[in-house]
Design goal:
68 residues, 0% strand
């Protein structure tokens, strides 16, 4: 690898590290508490917890035709 390519790669790496250093961080305990609060607040909208109404379920078994 030439020195120009190496310098370019290092420059990209430095820029990436600067971007990552500027990201605001929070403690894991705070993130976990916020995630738990979000889950509790939105539990009533979760189809895995409350189920899907039969009329709006796109995965229900198709009905057979009674005329045949």
């Amino acid at each position: 690898m030439s020195s120009g390519a190496s310098a370019s790669a290092l420059q990209r790496l430095v820029e990436q590290l600067k971007l990552e250093a500027g990201v605001e961080r929070i403690k894991v305990s705070q993130a976990a508490a916020e995630l738990q609060q979000y889950c509790v607040q939105n539990a009533c909208k979760d189809a895995l917890l409350v189920g899907i109404p039969a009329g709006s379920n796109p995965f229900r078994e198709p009905r057979s035709c009674a005329l045949l």
